[in-house]
């Protein structure tokens, strides 16, 4: 009896697509209605009393709230400051975290276990517990009231979590791949940059989007380190805008839309590789 060549079953792939579709539908159901209400509120005419019930289509539709948000809140300068911090901090954080994760994946098992345990302990330390010593260091260096304290954590990969995620990704790559790099006389740096890093693009896309969102929405660090209004980032500018006239909600909601849009754009650009997993060996 002639045997038939058996290929991969389509059932797991179909089940994966179904779960991804279900997850996407859940995300849309949870996040899209608040975003629609946010946009609708920002298009309401400023100065009018709030409607008794939320409206998806305000009457009349007005963009005055956006004009007042930019003029009164200084959102243009704050946006430029936030862009400057993100453009420097996000790529630097991803590069440092990926390099540290690659080094961790290539260490001896005992050393790796010690470093991973130390990283997990560091993750348990609340970020607020580090505010006082960090502030003391930056003040001693004369770097307070500048954007440097907002960028400096990127030199350490921002968070041990990013290093651990890259460590797991690089560890999942076939050992024969690293052996082939040794045979080809590739240095560890070239192996990381030319071979390993391109194979974990989904991880890089996901962490880039996550780092951008956390950097873009960072409120606590600018509040602690920045005092000059010309150096305010968007979260600080939105706070200032909210206290100007708390009852004039369309202006504040317009500022919130302007602050939320870049994060949504970055997530949409990264979602394909963030949501769809690629096999480290190149198979899909």
From TrEMBL:
Membrane topology: Multi-pass membrane protein
Top-level taxonomic group: Bacteria
PROSITE patterns tied to this protein: ABC_TM1 (PS50928)
Transmembrane feature ranges: 21-43, 83-105, 112-135, 147-169, 199-219, 249-270
Keywords: Cell membrane, Membrane, Transmembrane, Transmembrane helix, Transport
A biological process from GO: transmembrane transport
GO CC term (a single one): plasma membrane
The protein's name: Carbohydrate ABC transporter membrane protein 2, CUT1 family (TC 3.A.1.1.-)
Stretches assigned to the ABC transmembrane type-1 domain: 79-270
CDD domains: TM_PBP2
Entry's family note: Belongs to the binding-protein-dependent transport system permease family.
Subcellular compartments: Cell membrane
Matching SUPFAM superfamilies: MetI-like
């Amino acid at each position: 009896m002639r045997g038939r060549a058996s290929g991969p079953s389509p059932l797991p792939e179909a089940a994966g697509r179904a779960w991804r579709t279900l997850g996407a539908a859940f995300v849309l159901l949870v996040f899209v209605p608040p975003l629609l209400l946010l946009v609708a509120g920002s298009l309401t005419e400023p100065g009018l009393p709030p409607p008794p019930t939320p409206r998806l289509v305000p009457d009349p539709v007005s963009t005055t709230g956006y004009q007042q948000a930019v003029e009164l809140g200084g959102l243009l300068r704050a946006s430029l400051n936030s862009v400057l911090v993100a453009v420097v901090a996000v790529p630097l954080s991803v590069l440092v975290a990926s390099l540290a994760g690659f080094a961790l994946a290539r260490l001896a098992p005992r050393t790796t276990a010690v470093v991973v345990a130390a990283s997990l302990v560091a993750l348990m330390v609340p970020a607020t517990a580090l505010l006082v010593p960090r502030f003391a260091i930056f003040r001693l260096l004369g770097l307070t009231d500048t954007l440097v304290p907002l960028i400096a954590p990127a030199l350490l990969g921002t968070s041990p979590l990013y290093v651990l995620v890259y460590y797991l990704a690089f560890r999942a790559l076939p050992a024969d791949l690293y052996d082939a790099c040794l045979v080809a006389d590739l240095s560890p740096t070239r192996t990381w940059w030319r071979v390993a890093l391109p194979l974990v693009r989904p991880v890089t896309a996901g962490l880039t989007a996550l780092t951008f969102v956390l950097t873009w929405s960072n409120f606590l660090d600018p509040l602690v380190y920045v005092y000059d209004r010309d150096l305010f980032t968007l979260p600080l500018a939105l706070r200032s805008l909210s206290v100007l006239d708390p009852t004039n909600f369309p202006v504040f909601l317009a500022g919130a839309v302007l602050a939320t849009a870049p994060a949504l754009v970055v997530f949409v650009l990264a979602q394909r590789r963030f949501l769809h997993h690629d096999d480290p060996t190149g198979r899909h």
